[in-house]
Structure formats: C-alpha cells, structure tokens
Amino acid sequence: MLGKTMTVQVLKIIIATGLAIGLAQLMGLENGTSAGIIAMLSVLDTRKSSLQIGWQRLVSTVVALTLGAVSFALLGFQLPAFLLYLSVFVFFAYRFEMKAAIAPCSVLVTHLWLAQDLSLSFLWNELLLMVIGAGLAIVLHVYMPSQQRAIMASRESIEAQLRAILSGLANAIYDLEDHQQVETIESLRREIKAAKRLVYRERENRLFSQIDYDLHYLDMRHNQVKLLAVMAWNLKSCRLELTEAKLLASLFELTADQLSEHNPATYLLADIEAMLEQFRARDLPQTRQEFETRAILFQVLTDLTRFIQLKIDFYATYSENERDILEEA
C-alpha cells in the first residue's frame, strides 16, 4: 500500500500533467502535450528541489531556444544544426549544473526543427510550454505533507529504546550472558538513520525555515548510542563485587528513569562523581583480575559521564524558548 507522501506525489504528477496539457490546449498552443511531459518531469520529491529544477528549466529554455534558433538560422533545418545546438547547450548545462534541463529543452528545440519555424510567435509558443509545465509543478508543491509528526514519533521511540538499553545494561551487570541490549543498540542505530532521512526530507520542504534542532537532537542520540555500544562491550567482561554492581546498576537505572528530551540531566554527573570518589577511597587492587575490573569500571563510568555530558551540551545549546519555537515550526 502506498504511503501518504507517495500517494500525494502520484496524484501531483497526474494532476500536473493533466492541467498542463489542458491549459496548453485551452491557450491554443502547438505541441501542448509537451507541457504535460515537462510538468511530469518537474514534480519532484521535495518542494525545494522542484522549485530549483523549475527555475533552472525556465532559464535554460530561453538559452536553448536562442541557441537553437541561431543554429538553424546559420546551417538550416538539418542534423548538423541540431548537433551544433546540442554541443553548445550540453556544455552550458553541465557548466552551470543544469543537466536536468537538457532533455525537456532539447524536445522544444526539435519542435523548431520539425516545424521549420523560427518566428517570434512560435518561439513564444515553446517558451509558454515550459512555463506552464514547470510552473504548475511548482504551484502544486505549495502543499507538501509535513514529516514533523513522524519525526516527533521517532524521537519518542528512540528515547524509549534508550531507556530499555540502559535498563538492559543494569541487568547485564549481574548477568554477563545477557546480550539482548546489543541487538537493541543495532536496531536503534537503524531507527536513528531512518529518522535522519525524514528530517532531511522535511528540511527540503521548508523553503524559508531551516530547522536544525531535530538533526542536532538525532546526532546527539547517535553519539550516545555509540557510547552505549562501548559500555555494553566492556560490561561483558567485567565481574564486579556486589557493592560495586549495585552502585553501577543503580546509576544506569537512574539514567534510564531520567532520560528525556527536555531533561538537562546535570545532577546525574554529581552522582557519577560521588561513585568515583567511593572507588578512589577503596584499597588498591591486589590482583590482576581486580586491576582489570577496576580499569573497566572506571572506563564505563567515564563513558557514562560522556553520555550524560552530550545531553547537557545539547540542552545548553537550545534554551527553553528556542525549543518551544522549533517545536511549533
């Protein structure tokens, strides 16, 4: 079944093509079906891309018709004249990154060749075909389904999975054979990538409002997930004493409970520092196993500190008022 965005896109192509051909015929233009083909090619995935391509094609049409008229005037309505036009226009299109205009503009130039007509009225006819086709595609892109609701749902899902992973790490401290959180981490990585694609699509559909909040949020969560993967790997080989295990597990559970998009989580750093102070006050390790365990423990606490600091830095970047504005945008 087609999604909402794809359904709207299909309808836009059909409507733009029909309206372009109908309007061209209503205006009495020759080769009116070409306006429909141009409209079909101009309805792209995003508002910004359609506007950009539409503008490029309008500019390129003026250049192409001028080059075509000059070529046919110099060499007659023969293949060498068309190849001369094509050589110059293709170079122009590649030089100014307007490759998408080569095919539709060249179709209009072939109309000059077939009709053997270089009159201003016929040139105007061809220009109007492009204006109608590209213009209707741009007009129809005024409506573009917003992805913001889906993005917000992804943020909620990401936070729920992060809480599950943190709770899973707390359990893994007692059960070294519990590797379920590793699969959850991989699943979360894929979801963050999918959410980023939604954000990029949404940004392309906002012509005058570039919002970076969602992208920065997902980058922050992505970096946190990388740290979680490292912590999960370290905990697999870390056998803690009961007291240490309880303290560390409680930190993971506390972090999970307080995990929220709008929670600065500053005080969690104080809890980690307090735990580090407790460990520093203990006797030095006496065996190799104790030394390795203590080293891993400090590494896990360091990574957990970085995990929380990423959120604190993100929270500091966006004040409450800024977040409210972005949420409403």
From TrEMBL:
Pfam families: ArAE_1 (PF06081), ArAE_1_C (PF11728)
Annotated keywords: Cell membrane, Membrane, Transmembrane, Transmembrane helix
Domain of life: Bacteria
Signal peptide interval: none
Annotated compartments: Cell membrane
Keyword Hydrolase (UniProt): no
Domain Putative aromatic acid exporter C-terminal per the UniProt entry, residue ranges: 150-311
Record carries keyword Secreted: no
InterPro entries per the UniProt record, alphabetical: ArAE_1, ArAE_1_C, ArAE_1_C_sf, UPF0421
TM regions (residue ranges): 59-86, 122-143
Membrane topology field: Multi-pass membrane protein
Name used for this protein in its record: Uncharacterized membrane protein YgaE (UPF0421/DUF939 family)
Organism: Streptococcus moroccensis
Lineage: Bacteria, Bacillati, Bacillota, Bacilli, Lactobacillales
